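Handout, section B. The chain below has 307 residues.
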Amino acid sequence: MIFDAHCDVLMKLWQDRSLSFYDGASLHVTLSGMAEAGVKVQCFAIYIPETVPEEARFTVALEMVDIFFTHVIEAFPSVKFVRTRRDIAALKKEEVGAMLTLEGCDAIGANLVKLKTLLRLGVASVGLTWNFPNAVADGAWEKRGAGLTAFGRQVVALLNEAKRWVDVSHLSEKAFWDVIEMARFPIASHSNVHRLCPHPRNLTDEQIKALIEKDGMIGINFVPYFLTAKKNEAMIADVLRHLDHICALGGENNVGFGSDFDGITETVAGLGTVREYARLVNELYKHYSTEQVSRFLFGNFYAHLPE
């Protein structure tokens, strides 16, 4: 079984309403592909493209929530909406779980009521920024590199109270450390190792150790230029290098996968869609025990759900 902590298929379904989640040819993640790969839980991010005007972003977020329930959950009896460990444990053998997440708080502006609304609609994890600054914090590509704002601290406090994941992927380093200081349930849903590939979106060893010490989670993603500095040459072996490094830092129980499928155009050789997860699984079994592979693929993220 596989628990994938991040994909952007909702964005693609929003951009092209003619696409079918079952087998859309231009989608990395499809229901038929998930079934073939053995994906048991897939996180679906609400990501608002930068081109959407600020005043329309919350409306677009709600449109993506509607797409999630109408075209993913209600359209297919085998797909069940899940948010907690109990929901996942209740899935039947033939059923898969779909989890709703938020990638970047741009959709809520500086309005906690909008965030509360998304939480009530079932959002299980909240990424505070995309790559740029917003009312919550600075993103990884903002040169200023500021941390959480006063409003951002209110957001983290609300997520603590609601028992939801606080996702540090895309944050500036200062904001990361502010979150580590106050978040009860921090994760990096789709981030890799900076020491192996020095990209601003990747985590330093100190950040990885801090997440491990907070008993958080790190989802290794499949973005080629987050895996290797060699242009367009990312291989499955590069994914394993990042996994090995996090394990060497003590993160064997704190690492999984967050593919970033449908949020990327370039893909890892041999790992171009969710269907090809089997190739990664086969490589994992060559290097790790059955128990370890089970935890990397599913158990670790499942165990770290706040409730």
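Note. The mean pLDDT is 97. Compare this with the example in section A.
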